[in-house]
Amino acid sequence: MKVLIIGAGTGGLALAHLLKQAGVCMAVYERDLAPNTDSGGYRVGISPAGSRALKACIPGELYDLYVATCARSPRYFNMLTEQLGEVLSFDVDDAGPNALDDERNVIRKTLRRVLLRGLEDDVFFGKALQGYSNNADGSVTASFQDGSLATGDVLVGADGTSSAVRRQRLPEARLEDTGIVSLGGKIPMTVETKALLSDKMFKGMSLIMAPMGFGAIIHSLEFADSRSDPGVADRWPDFVEAFDEDSIGWGIWGARQNCPRDPAGLSGEQLRELGLELARDWHPHLRALIRMTEPSTIRDIKVRTSVPLTPWASSNVTLLGDAVHTMTPGRGAGANTALRDAALLGRMLVEADQGRKPLVEAIHAYEVEMLRYSTEAVQESKKQMDAGDLAHRPVVGRLQLAVMRGVMRIINAMPALKRRAFRQMMRVRGEN
């Protein structure tokens, strides 16, 4: 069996590693022109379930490298007011034994570099998919915009939100605009910038809940331990320079109708001014973080979500990750769900390759399970970022915010309720 994987993102590369280790013939085709084309320097949060799925896909040595390139794990998950008052704070040490043993923060471009290791001869760049065709012998042929072709027994669309595979395989699949606009940036971690964060904010990840449905996230990334570890330099000398500088990242979002202007198309300087305008009544430290951010690091994001699909007739063409279930960042579940897809689909394809299950039956088993858990993740993620929610209305939204904060403060004062709330938060990210 030969598997064609379209897209060298997190899910596609994890799947490629699993198949390669099992002796399944595969090749990855990526539209970027070179491995370092993806210059995104922003974090991706990998949950414990995401880390376990990744560990099931890649060689042990590579998993060690992944762990070494991650920032220190967060100890706290904080819910704060826009004045930095604590509403709810989860301390990982109180959440149960090893509750977040493998919670990771990693820079997206670094993770891609890690996952490309060992696949140098299997990933082909500059291959933008034009379309695919099904052949009389049951195989499938991918056609690329450069005129080249590739034929295999299975084609997997791992080509992200704008998936060319999805457009052909599931033309009925739709994305919808949530009405939420978002912007964010990062600043180097210095004595001055670190002083803007409380101890819990510095050691954890913090979500800001503000009036009119506006929200923000603050996280600090420290790589100092790995960067200075001689063991890391000895094992992976070519990765020492790949470590990102320690930084503080921030993001802010809200309903488009409540923003003074749409961030789409604005320059970095204009985005910074918009961020300051949105946070004009917030704590001075939050405004200082935005003000001190170099405009070139600030990006805007149009928050979209997939419309959940009904089951379809399975074939030897399937999808994983954002190609089939784009979700908002409201629950931090996107990359983790893609890794879960890769581990599950990989197992099913190995079973088919070994003759233990017919190919289409194996893919069907994957698609049924993937639709089950991804639909829940999409819906839960949208709840956090939907411009139609009452939270974005002036009067009702303030009342809803006050009630929500009151409930969270009660939970914060009751350890049993707090543990239950923590489990619910992690369940959407793949935890049982």
UniProtKB/TrEMBL annotation:
The keyword Protein biosynthesis does not apply. It comes from the Bacteria. GO terms for molecular function: monooxygenase activity. This is FAD-dependent monooxygenase. InterPro entries: FAD-bd, FAD/NAD-bd_sf. SUPFAM superfamilies: FAD/NAD(P)-binding domain. Residues 284-380 form the FAD-binding domain. Keywords: FAD, Flavoprotein, Monooxygenase, Oxidoreductase. It comes from Rhizobium beringeri. Pfam families: FAD_binding_3. Transmembrane segments: none annotated.
